[in-house]
Amino acid sequence: MISTSRFIEACWGRPHDKVPVWFMRQAGRYQDGYRKLRQQYSFLEMAHNPDICTEVSCRPVEELGVDAAILFSDIMIPLGPMGVDFEIREHFGPVIAHPVRTGRDLKQLRVLEPEDDLPEVFEAIEKICERLGAIPLIGFAGAPFTLASYLIEGGPSKNYLHTKRLMWEQPEVWRQLMDVLADATVRHLSAQVRHGAQAVQVFDSWIGALPVDDYRKYVMPSMRAVFAKLNALQVPTIYFGTGTASLLHAMKETGPTVLGVDWRTPIRQARSTVGSEVTLQGNLDPMTLVCEWDIVKEHSTAILQDMLGDPAFIFNLGHGVPPEAHPDNLKRLVEWVHQFPGTPASQ
Ligand code: CP3
Asked: Which residues are in the Uroporphyrinogen decarboxylase (URO-D) domain (predicted)?
């Protein structure tokens, strides 16, 4: 299929008309419509209902004019059919009933069979793609480290005490856990691509907890395997994490098409760290979105100027849209980004 999407072209570093833009967590509580639906359904009910999932995934494209949709789901969803009992607590995050701490706990995880285990997700993907037409859908999954951190800690964490302890004290159990989770990530994303996703993003949100030497030793092998398999699908792959200033080069070496940058690293610094071979995605501080438009404009313009003329750039936030964001800021921001050319006028 020949793609004309500016988002897909930028992923491959090819010329395109305007700087593409989408937002992590572009579907969420900052939207009136989303909050209304959430009064009737739990988050998990919404994510498992193909019609609601389609509606919620497509609305940001229709309301904001972003250049891509992202599947409305969660990194935890595939863990359910793998045998993990969890809930998602509002304003807190995922909570796991029986954390994984030993080799025996690990043996209880079963292999993900995406289409059999989560047919509603793939039904939603097909519906979304049909409704979006030429706008691409980004599929996503959690990365092994970030999934492991929830499984081992039992919920969100500040210091990743149990995760690091398992990683260092039981390296063989850790390696097996990384393999099991990497396999699930690849299976889930491959199925999403089979059903119509045109790009995939791997969320390693909490990878910044590791120093680079530990990243290379304990995480990089599984990420290399993930991207080797995903890249064979011939869709762009995006690798995102936060707190990654010292990890960006190693993350790039794992082989994604696009590297997501959080707001702490100046985007020009990220570019000089990783070289020109990889597309960069980011990295407006999400907290600007709760301020007046002038603040959003000032911070976004600095990023756009740093990346002016770089065809391998996708505008996004440095992390997800906060629930307190003003919807108007997001709408204006899309218009503002679209005023910037995707490649130098001379090309
Ligand atoms: O970007 C999108 O619009 C797609 C939807 C999406 C969600 N979760 C929906 C969601 C994506 C890509 C995710 C991934 C995810 N989930 C990550 C990686 C990205 C990131 O933000 O770092 C992580 C770490 C999770 C785990 C998780 N799930 C957290 C930390 C929370 C937030 C808890 C809260 O109430 O603030 C969730 C719940 C969740 N996932 C919500 C949404 C819209 C909020 C649910 C609600 O109460 O309506």
From this structure: 20-29, 138-154
Would the annotation count 150 as a binding residue? yes
271 CB within 6 A, ligand 1:
no
Q: Is 92 helix (H, G, I), strand (E, B) or coil?
A: coil
Q: Which one of 30, 67, 74, 117 is the catalytic residue?
A: 74
Give the chain's end-to-end CA distance (angstroms, integer).
Answer: 24
The three-state secondary structure class of 214 is helix
Q: Which domain holds residue 33?
A: 6-337
pLDDT digit string, tens, across residues 316-339: 999 999 999 999 999 999 999 999
* Residue entry with tokens 């929830």: 150
Residue 346: inside a domain, yes or no? no
In angstroms, what CA-CA distances link 127 with 106, 196, 299? 35, 9, 36
C-alpha 261 to ligand 1 mean position (Å) = 18
Radius of gyration in angstroms for the set of CA atoms belonging to the chain, rounded to a whole number: 19
State how far the Cα of 288 lies from the Cα of 293, in Å rounded to an integer.
8
Q: Is 286 in the pocket of ligand 1 (CB under 6 A)?
A: no
Ligand 1 pocket test: pick from 75, 90, 128, 157 the residue with the most ligand atoms within 8 Å of its Cβ.
75
- Decide whether any atom of ligand 1 lies within 6 Å of the 38 Cβ: yes
* 343 domain residue, yes or no: no
Contact between residue 64 and residue 337 where contact means Cβ atoms under 8 Å apart: no
| Structural domain count, the chain | 1
**74 is annotated as contributing to ligand binding:** yes
Asked if the structure places residue 345 within a domain, the reply is no
Give the domain CATH number at 112: 3.20.20.210
pLDDT digits (tens, 9 = 90+) for 272-292: 999 999 999 999 999 999 999
Residue 59 inside a domain? The answer is: yes
101 classed as catalytic: no
200 C-beta closer than 6 A to ligand 1: no
